[in-house]
Amino acid sequence: MNQTRTFLLFALLAVAYLLFQQWEQDYGPHPPTPAVASNNGANGSNNVPGATPTIASGNAGETGASQLVTVTTDVLRLTVDTRGGSIVRSELLQYPVTPQTKKEPHPAPIRLLDDSASDYFAAQSGLVSADGAAPDHRAIFQAAQTSYELASGQDVLNVDLSWTDPSGVKVIKRYTVHRGSYVVDLDQQIDNGSSKSWDGNAYHQLQRVDRPAPVYSNFLQRISDQSRYGFFGAAWYSPDQKFNKLAFDKFEKEPLDKSQITGGWVAMMQQYFLGAWIPPAKEASTFSSAVVNEADGKPRYVIRSVSPQISVAPGQHADNTAQLYLGPKLPSELGAIAPGLDLTIDYGMLKIFAEPLHWILAQLDKLTGNWGVSIILLVLLINLATFKLTNAQFESANKMRKLKPRVDALKERYGDDRQKMQQAMMELYKKEKVNPAAGCFPLLITIPIFYGLYYVLRDSVELRQAPFFGWIHDLSAADPYFVLPILYTVVMLVQQWVMPVQPGMDPAQQKMMKFMPLMFAVIFLFFPSGLVLYYVVNGLCRLLQQWWMMRRADAVPAKAAA
The CATH number of the domain where 333 resides is what? Predict the structure, then answer.
């Protein structure tokens, strides 16, 4: 059987996959808005281990004016609110929202943390104490200046926020940023100038709302938006339980409930980017989740890490540290920052195929400087690796094509007796050493590569807005002019013309095969152009190999006759 026939199962799976995802988005069951806690933290707060205070998740708190402090590096622009010392905005300066064009040479950068109501996402931290003064993420801090910038030649920049209680307890919250890094270090320094011991805990939490419903101008834009299918929600990691995702609709049903974890992290994920709090590797932190409410009634989802109890004697000093990652999902960097952090590049069940494909593409990109060219080279490498297997497929198909007159004779002999007809065909194939299943073997390679590459193109930030040539400005997005899907359809039609319908195929299946090119054209309209590019080049390689095999097979009888 030819390549088109071997793709039949693949096409049906792809269509089913798209229809299922679309149905889930539009008509799938959605849980009701959960019962949420009030701002005072009565129901949405977690008891601190070793003490009795609670951590309020809302924004109500100490009165007084706050101000915004801007911190700029070569890759990040952070906005810190002196209320709580929370980071309320983070702009990723090397990742624009839209591709750079002549009309828009300086597009706005991606904003990961955001203090707007519709996209609220903040990185909060603080201290709590059962019986002593402690600044949580609602306390008012003081800053020496409102703007900090990493100067040329400077690699490290410290930003200090201070808080002082009349009892003598002083806290300095120090953020440290580094050149070329998306990691922000936080050190909460406690100076106990009071007359009694200070006992409490430090915490770090991420709080955000669910993403607003996207607005599309047309159906094609809607179904081709790959960000709709990626995971958007919370995640956490522990050495024992490994990587875990916590969707927002599971916060009430399956909460992360005060788990003692050493060497883990908590995060909020979205397509391409994430924010993650990483406690010290040897610290036994308590992870938990909560749902809280604001005045507008929109739920906010919180995932937090709470430190072990901290005790500071009068006149003594203590520090609590953590790291905050605010940036892209780069596999080359995440694993080095914290164990398991690279798992946030979520390739799902096909990770075993997607990760090697991504690694090969990354190495090829280092040579070519173009992800599209790297995809073409990947096609060539895979075709070289599977050359013999594909040859066996074409040889089997060619032998079956030559047996068509004898198969037609068997049909006339046995008429409507399909059982005897099948037995006679199997005997004929066995006698002529033809394996009808040989054409199905490449399918075992084709389907994993298809889905693996699909996840790589959908979730790899390196391919986000990666241009190819001409009209392809983003390999992770659909072809805007449908050129590649049309090219692939043409290739499939030529394959059908070169390799006629195989003997033994019933009329219904023959009609299906004729309809296949149109089916693929519709499917590939919505897929990333990089994926369609892969299959256009792969189809051309198969077509050339198919033509060469048929020509060689036809040349053998001609030589024998001469």
Answer: 2.70.98.90
